[in-house]
Amino acid sequence: MKFFLDTANISQIETAQNLGIIDGVTTNPSLMAKEGIKGDENVFNHYKKICSIVDGDVSAEVISTDFEGMIGEAEKLASLHPQIVVKIPVISEGIRAIKHLTSMGIRTNCTLVFNTGQALLAAKAGATYVSPFIGRLDDIGENGIELIEKLVDLFNYYGYETQVLAASIRHTNHIIKCMEAGADVATCPLDPILGLLNHPLTDAGLEKFLSDHRKLNA
Ligand code: E4P
Question: Residue of the nearest CA to atom 7 in ligand 1?
């Protein structure tokens, strides 16, 4: 399973890149706003900076909701760097845009997906990735991981090449469950990724190894 870092924060992206375990980055307008990145030129430069830090795909989201606007934005974003994948919301104009961009060779990440029907349309339009938001489903009492399981099975059954990119991940157990469900990618904040390292037996075992070594070599 690939790991994308779900942030626009440069310091966190550098930290994860230095660990050597991330395969890309996803952003959205809220994450860009959280970093105070505003104005087209600043936004474009920020995406370029992220691409210079990581090796893999970097999702950059359009703001337009009409077909022409999305296409114009997508062409600009894709021209910034070969690593850019254009994030498009799963609305009717977005599905049209994904179909068109796919035919132009521009890769897309269909976002704000909450059920199999939306994911089916994204896959049929040729999206590179489909992003089911599992945390937001859990927030309203549904089961986000079940959606990942269904999409992995259905895409395999029908042979869709669209990759299942589990998004809106809230905690470390979400990552484990996405891996068990066979998600192609999980995009996560840094903390849940670092949480994968935690186990009390690791801490206790390491402390014992080091104290035994210290006793003998004192
Ligand atoms: C990433 O592609 C999504 O935009 C992001 O995971 C949404 O996460 P949230 O539900 O925590 O805002």
Answer: 168
